[in-house]
Amino acid sequence: MLLDYLRELGRIPPPTEVIDDTPLGRIESGFTHYLVAERGLSAATVINYSPTVHRFLKERFGAEEVELDGLSPRDVHGFLLRHAPRVSRGRAKLMATALRSFFRFLRQRGDIRSDLAGAIPATTNWRLTGLPLSLGPEQVEALLDSCDQDAALGQRDYAILVLLARLGLRAGEVVALTLDDFDWDTGTLIVHGKGKRQERLPLPEDVGEAVANYLRGGRPHCASRRVFIRLQAPHRGFSSSVAIDNVVRRALARTGLDPEKKGAHLLRH
Fold first, then answer.
1. Smallest Cα–Cα separation from 269: which of 171, 190, 188, 191?
2. In Å, how far are 4, 95, 96, 162, 221 from 15, measured between CA atoms?
């Protein structure tokens, strides 16, 4: 936070970007550009995909010459068999998805001729095999009631929780909301979803009232167009969806609730 503040004042230079100009680095950089520019995926998705692709390339080629067309289904299966048993089912599914996307990128670019993406087996991750990951109506109301709406923090957290509970927004969608996304005359708001998609949703009366109260009484004065702003300086929008998860965790702690999952997706469910 201190370094960011000093950079904004121009007192220290911005961080130097380290460019990996090795053959593997250029491949990974091309894949990142493909995900963002052609697939329209978010930065969070790129961050989730990159470690798997990096590890696969390092294990397969190491210091050897990079010959992508020499990749085979055996290389892919061996990688997944080594790493998938060590992680959760959800993480194993993410690894398989990242590799499928990577091999589609290589084939589109002409680096490989075989359909390696089709050779990746499906990862079983059955839904509803555990306890329900949701709260009952009374528990949701208890979360909302736990916010002190006489304080700026309580007004902000209440507005966030209402958006999560009433509209089922993702944490990242709440972070990305701007003042321009709300059309108060028509009672609608624009939500910026995955893959750069935009959805126009109705703005329920209780949600609009909660957001309006926060904007009038709890939001710090600043130049940012983001709706939800950090209360501590520097006053700007949240840097990631983790801040929204923390809002939910604090509310759960205040109400004494202890579900298995404690992030913002709990209210989406």
1. 171
2. 10, 30, 33, 38, 28
3-state secondary structure of 233: coil
Give phi and psi for 200, each to the nearest 5: -100, 120
56: Cβ–Cβ under 8 A, 6 or more apart, which residues?
A: 76, 79, 99, 102
Tell me which residue of 128, 125, 199, 196 sits closest to 168, measured CA to CA: 199
In percent, the amount of the chain with pLDDT more than 90 equals 61
Q: What is the DSSP string of 174-205?
A: HHH-BGGGEETTTTEEEEE-GGG-EEEEE--H
Cβ neighbours, 10 Å, residue 117:
18
SS3 string, 69-136, reads HHCCHHHHHHHHHHHHHHCCHHHHHHHHHHHHHHHHHHHHHCCCCCCCHHHCCCCCCCCCCCCCCCCC
The whole-number pLDDT of residue 131 equals 55
**Tokens 């750069």, located at residue:** 196
Residues 25-59 pLDDT 10s: 999 999 999 998 888 888 778 889 999 999 999 99
